[in-house]
Specification:
heterotrimer; A mainly alpha (200); B alpha/beta (837); C alpha+beta (253); B: 837 residues; alpha/beta; Barwin-like endoglucanases; six-stranded mixed beta sheet; five-stranded parallel beta sheet; 31 strands; 21% helix; C: alpha+beta; Alpha-Beta Plaits; 2 domains; two-stranded antiparallel sheet; 9 strands
Chain lengths: 200, 837, 253
């Protein structure tokens, strides 16, 4: 057994799953609205319930999203030329055996991913809220409707890739969001900068 | 109406003047638009660009109250340009008659006809008479050249109505005026028909009757009476106004236009002698010569077995007017204000809002001891004692409210403008314990009768002897039900004995049977009929009683939209009155494309299949052969004593020819046409400082500079009692408004939607300003005259918060037409200013 | 089933508003408290309790007589209906076989997107946040009755019938271009206009908002493609490149 170090706090884990579940629900119901998936009525009863859930789960999503800001945003914004190098080498996912710059607690890809989710999340929340309250301005509603759908596309593309990269594409990653700990050696390879900062 | 609504579609030119059918008679527009589809021209003449004007081919504006000037100019135009229908005028009208050489006209007497007495404001009509020959018949000049003949007098009288003078009076654009004249005068050709649609826009003036007379003259000149697509057509203000007039709702007529007896007509034979017109002309049908039959049958209907030959058929029991007494609306309320009445039944009306000068009517009601208000809902009349400006403590009038059933909660007939009596069925039971009017009257007569029977009284006979047998037998609880069919049959009339034709001895009708029609009514008491005009409306067919008014067959054999088997029309189902004028003296239609009737020498009798001469088409005005038939031919105007259409009308109070006078309240110091400013024959309630304060008026007064007119909107009905309570209608027209021209609004800084106060000499009312292009100022005699208009549907009592404001009749004057006493609510003077707060 | 439609002719309309009342009567819509705002036109706008309204338009003229126009405003029952396009709830808005665009309040989710997508500003929401608008009296049509506004109209300014026949009739009467003949795939409320539509206060070319078209044509498919693409790319990566292995990385060092 190698030494284990803690990568994610319990709060972070719980919040991640809240965010994940709410997000998936919102995407699924979003698809239902787009394509009239009446099959969902067997689960939710009616589209009226679905719409109410969509709105209120949206609130949960927003709260959960905001809760991530404190521990991810500073790191994600701490961008440097090394991130460009990492990204230009595809994070080692495309061509194996490339030399990658050392990464912080989250890697450059994760940084970008987080910024995308945060940006699209803010956009989809605000536009969603505007649609919800339905103000008199027709233009405002139409712009919101457009932005809601645009950011929706960001989500539907980002979620499967995230799920893939954080699971089978990267064995050992998934446990972070379960136990919160990772083997030191595993971490050293992937998040060298962070491990060093921790003093190992 | 001489014609009927569907008949509008047959017209080539439709003149809408004095009415606004698109607003007030929307259904009639169906037929007007159909006429237009077939190429007809619609001419609209109105002070305001109305909803009807939006569909007009020519719209001409005129200042309110100047219709006679407008029409007088048209008469002159027709005569000057030889556009009249010569044969029609010469043969069917009194144009050929010679008038008394002493007769003088306004052109010679400064606005007056001969025989005027200034003190009584009345004419002595002696000089208005015709010159008679040795047989007592009017002398005639068939060439129309004699200077004393009606035609020449007409020409002379209207020679003063030059185009320039007319536009100076009316404020109409000269080109528009000429366009209207030209288009309407084109109907003088035999193949053209022109119809005129009027309503309160003509009647509610001090010259109301003469407005209509002027048009009658035009219609006779153009040969437009009696034909399809012609006539002079009163657009009735209520669905059953025709019925109410037919049934004698007015003070001076009994049912079916029999005159109400006065104190000088002491017995039946005097009544008959004095009221039955006589003609020695064998070609004149003189239908009113049957008066005796109709009054006798009427008396038999109301007094039944109690009416006998010995007691003059109960004639003495009929109420009598004093000689010369006028008991019309304005006079009634004038007397009421003087405290001359103890009680008042306000039955299906709302005088507190509908009466001209309503402040006066409201005050008058406070002099009553009691009042019974019969209506659907409480209204400004029933609640007058708590109305604005009145203190309930000061008012001793005891008010009873009897809620009545609405028209859909009872069965019966109503008569539309085209004289069709249509049977209607009960849709629902009356709600809230309300009763149909008939049942209320039944209870009333029962109780009053039993009081008279028990206690006697001054003159019990008229009540005690009433034949009243309409109750449905059996227990009914508190109130009895009546059989409305029994009433309808009573109106139609019965043969009370076996009746035989006096000449042939043939049996006309069996005792107890319903009368066939009024032709079979008798003057010896052997028949009864509650209303001779309606005799034939409920009659026997194959031995069974048939309600003709309930017929609903849609056949239209002439293609003219007469639908002879839809409902029933008085008289004897004749759809176009005076239809004998639609054919030439040989009985052939002037316009074969629109054949109303036609003399067919070989008409096939459906029973015998043999050909005998007879009329085909509409029910003709009598079966007699056409006029040219030497022996039996008849003139077309059968209700006129002489059988001729009256271009010259010596029967009216204010002159044989219409003459333009200004309204009582008008913006002009002088009548442009003569020295006589207002109608000389009209009764003034207030004159030279004398009279009641309530009746005050100010003409040409700086304080009231604008002409005003009242009118109606589609969404509301009369005083709004039936419509203000309906939120669907109230949301469309929620408040009293006043329509103001852009020009006046600019002058007075009025914005659309501003709350205004409209004031007249007699009262004031709040209204919301509608600033519009639809009113335009008039250029009259070189100066600018503004006109405003407001509807009269509103009242303080509902909506309860007073948001609808009060009745526009608070403004209107106490003055009427000398012939009808219809108040002048279409032309009076007001001021408008912005309301504070 | 032939497509049904209304033919509205302002030239025949006399502004009596019997249709406005009849509509309320049939649909059992409440009256509302209003004020006179200096016009005959009232209520000021369509409401959840007003499906059909006559607009009164005064057009002054220096030269000719003025015009006073009465124009019925209501759902146009577009063939290409923006409301139906954008509506997220299946069955809340649907088309009857006669072509009427009808709503089902039980299925309406109250999102009000239809308000934004309607080219004619027609849908209104009632106090329960459910869509309300003219249904072309689909319930009456189903029973072979004509819409009540058309039945009530005294002058034939609102006529109901087969759409093709109404167009032919209007053309025969001299209206070369019937408003709504081709717009938005063809409207179910056609107008016989003598003047350009602008004169009557109507758009020359009514259109569903561009953003809604873009959303419908591009974004909706893109959402599916995006999701599918992302999943496919992941699977492809797994199959072709395979997951990261620590061992490999060891080799790196």
């Amino acid at each position: 057994m190698s030494k284990m170090i803690r990568k994610a706090s319990t709060f972070e884990i719980v919040n991640h799953w809240i965010l994940a579940v709410s997000c998936i629900f919102l995407v699924v119901s979003g698809f239902a609205f787009l394509f009239h998936l009446e099959q969902l009525n067997t689960v939710f009863g009616s589209f009226i319930t679905l719409k109410n859930l969509h709105n209120w789960v949206g609130v949960v999503f927003v709260v959960s999203l905001l809760a991530t800001v404190s521990h991810y945003l500073p790191v994600a914004l701490n961008l440097s030329s090394e991130d460009l190098v990492w990204l230009s080498k595809g994070g080692g996912y495309i061509v194996k055996n490339v030399k990658l710059p050392e990464q912080d607690i989250i890697n450059s890809g994760q940084k970008l991913y987080y910024l995308a989710i945060l940006g699209a999340g803010v956009l989809i929340s605000i536009s969603g809220f505007i649609i919800w309250i339905a103000p008199g301005s027709r233009t405002l509603v139409l712009i919101s409707h457009l932005l809601h759908n645009l950011s929706f596309i960001v989500f539907v593309m980002a979620i499967p890739i995230h799920a893939y990269l954080a699971s089978i594409a990267n064995p050992g990653t998934f446990r972070i969001m379960v136990q919160g700990t990772v083997p030191l050696e595993w971490a050293r390879k992937r998040h060298g900068k962070w491990v060093k900062r921790l003093g190992y | 109406m001489t014609n009927h609504w569907i008949d509008f579609k047959n017209a080539n030119v439709i003149l809408v003047m004095g009415s606004n059918p698109a607003e007030n008679h929307p259904i009639s527009m169906k037929w007007i638009m159909r006429a237009k589809e077939r190429g007809a021209k619609l001419l609209v003449v109105d002070p305001r660009f109305t909803k009807t004007a939006t569909k007009a081919d020519v719209y001409a504006s005129l200042r309110s109250g100047t219709d006679i000037a407008f029409l007088g100019g048209m008469i002159k135009y027709i005569l000057d340009n030889n556009l009249y229908f010569k044969e029609y005028v010469a043969k069917y009208t009194n144009a050929t008659y010679l008038v008394n050489p002493d007769f003088k006209m306004p052109g010679e007497l400064n606005g007056l006809f001969s025989g005027y007495d200034e003190k009584s404001r009345k004419y002595d009509k002696k000089t208005w008479s015709f010159q008679l020959d040795e047989n007592g018949l009017p002398k005639q000049d068939p060439t129309l050249k004699d200077p004393n003949c009606v035609f020449q007098l007409l020409k002379k009288h209207y020679s003063r109505y030059t185009i320039d003078k007319v536009v100076d009076i009316t404020g109409t654009d000269k080109n528009k005026l000429l366009e209207v004249y030209k288009a309407y005068a084109s109907t003088g050709r035999p193949n053209m028909s022109g119809t005129e649609l009027y309503a309160m826009g003509w009647t509610q003036h001090t010259v109301g009757t003469q407005n209509i007379r002027a048009m009658c003259i035009i219609q006779l000149l153009l040969g437009n009476i009696g034909i399809a697509g012609g006539g002079i057509n009163a657009m009735r203000g209520e669905s059953n106004v025709q019925g109410s007039t037919d049934y004698g709702l007015l003070f001076h007529i009994l049912p079916a236009y029999l005159p109400v007896p006065n104190a000088a007509l002491t017995d039946l034979s005097t009544y008959k002698e004095k009221t039955t017109p006589k003609s020695k002309d064998p070609k004149s049908v003189n239908w009113w010569s049957n008066r005796g039959k109709y009054i006798t049958s009427y008396l038999k209907a109301i007094y039944g077995n109690k009416a006998t030959k010995e007691n003059d058929f109960g004639y003495a029991w009929l109420p009598k007017l004093d000689v010369g007494m006028n008991a019309s609306w304005l006079n009634l309320f004038d007397k009421m204000l003087e405290g001359k009445f103890e009680g008042f039944f306000a039955w299906g009306q709302n005088p507190a809002c509908s009466g001209a000068n309503s402040n006066k009517t409201r005050k008058a009601m406070s002099k009553l001891k009691w009042m019974v208000n019969v209506n659907l809902f409480d209204n400004e009349t029933g609640s007058f004692w708590r109305g604005p400006g009145l203190n309930p403590k000061d008012i001793q009038t005891e008010v009873f409210f009897l809620p009545c059933a609405s028209s859909v909660e009872k069965e019966g007939s109503i008569s539309n403008s085209g004289r069709w009596a249509q049977w209607r069925y009960k849709a629902v039971e009356p709600i809230g314990g309300t009763l149909p009017d008939g049942e209320m009257i039944n209870e009333l007569q029962k109780r009053v009768k039993s009081l008279y029977q028990k206690e006697g009284g001054k003159f019990p006979a008229p009540i005690i002897n009433l034949a009243w047998d309409y109750e449905i037998p059996g227990g009914h609880g508190q109130f009895s039900k009546i059989d409305i069919h029994k009433v309808a049959k009573e109106i139609n009339g019965y043969y009370l004995q076996d009746v035989y034709d006096k000449k042939t001895g043939k049996l006309i009708g069996k005792k107890g049977d319903l009368c066939t029609n009024f032709v079979t009514l008798q003057d010896d008491g052997s028949t009864s009929s509650g209303n001779w005009l309606y005799s034939g409306s409920y009659t026997l067919k194959d031995g069974k009683p048939v309600n003709m008014m309930a017929r609903r067959k849609k056949g239209d054999p002439t293609g003219l939209g007469m639908f002879p088997e839809w409902s029933w029309c008085w008289p004897v189902n004749r759809r176009i009155l005076y239809n004998r004028a639609s054919v030439n003296p040989d009985g052939q239609p002037w316009n074969p494309k629109k054949t109303v009737i036609k003399w067919d020498p070989n008409k096939i009798d459906p029973a015998t299949k043999k050909g005998t001469p007879g009329w085909v088409g509409d029910v003709p005005d009598g079966p007699a052969p056409p006029m040219s038939d030497e022996k039996n031919g008849k003139y077309p105007f059968i209700m006129k004593t002489d059988g001729k259409g009256s271009i010259y009308g010596p029967g009216l109070a204010d002159g044989p020819f219409p003459e333009h006078y200004e309204a009582l309240e008008c913006p002009l110091q002088e009548n442009i046409l003569s020295k006589q400013r207002i109608n000389p024959a009209t009764k003034l309630f207030h004159d030279k400082g004398k009279g009641k304060d309530e009746d005050v008026f100010y003409s040409c007064d700086m304080r009231y500079p604008y002409v005003a007119s009242t009118y109606r909107v589609t969404e509301h009905w009369q005083t709004g009692l039936m419509t203000r309570h309906l939120s669907w209608l109230l949301e469309m027209q929620p408040q009293q408004f006043v329509e103001v021209s852009m020009e006046l609004a600019k002058e007075k800084d009025i914005k659309n939607g501003d709350k205004m106060i409209v004031k007249s000499a007699r009262g004031q009312v709040n209204a919301i300003a509608i600033v519009t292009n639809r009113f335009k100022p008039f250029k009259v005699a070189g100066s600018t005259i503004h006109q405003v208009g407001l509807p009269w549907h509103f009242g303080w009592q509902f909506p309860e918060d007073g948001s609808g404001f009060d009745s526009a009749n608070l403004l209107t004057p106490t003055i009427g037409d000398p012939n009808t006493m219809i108040p002048e609510s279409k032309a009076f003077m007001v001021n408008i200013e912005k309301a504070r707060g | 089933m032939k497509r049904k439609a209304l033919l509205i002719s302002p030239e025949l309309c006399i502004g009596c508003r019997a249709c406005q009342v009849a509509c309320k009567s049939w649909n059992q819509l409440d009256g509302t408290r209003t004020n006179n705002r200096g016009t005959f036109e009232n209520p000021p706008d369509l409401t959840p309790a007003l499906y059909n309204k006559i607009r009164f338009v005064e057009v002054p003229s220096e030269k000719d007589d003025m015009r006073w126009l009465f124009v019925s405003q209501r759902c146009m029952h577009c063939d290409d209906a923006g409301c139906m396009k954008i509506c997220p709830s299946p069955g809340a808005l649907y088309r009857t076989k006669e072509g009427a665009v009808v709503f089902d309040k039980d299925k309406c989710i109250g999102c009000k997107l239809c308000v934004a997508a309607c080219p004619f500003d027609v849908p209104r929401y009632d106090k329960n946040d459910k869509i309300s608008k003219c249904t072309l009296c689909a319930d009456r049509i189903a029973e072979n009755l004509e819409p009540l506004c058309a039945k009530t109209c005294p002058t034939g300014a609102i006529k109901f019938g087969d759409r093709d026949e109404l167009i032919a009739e209007a053309q025969k009467a001299g209206y070369q271009k019937v408003y709504g003949q081709n717009d938005l795939g063809g409207l179910g409320a056609l107008y016989a206009f003598k003047e350009p539509p602008k004169f009557y206060g109507m758009d020359d070319k009514p259109q569903i908002p561009d953003s809604v078209i873009f959303w419908h044509k591009v974004l909706k498919p893109l959402a599916v493609i995006g999701l599918g693409g992302a999943v496919a790319a992941s699977l492809l990566h797994y199959a072709v490149v395979g997951p990261k292995k620590d061992k490999e990385e060891n080799n790196d060092e």
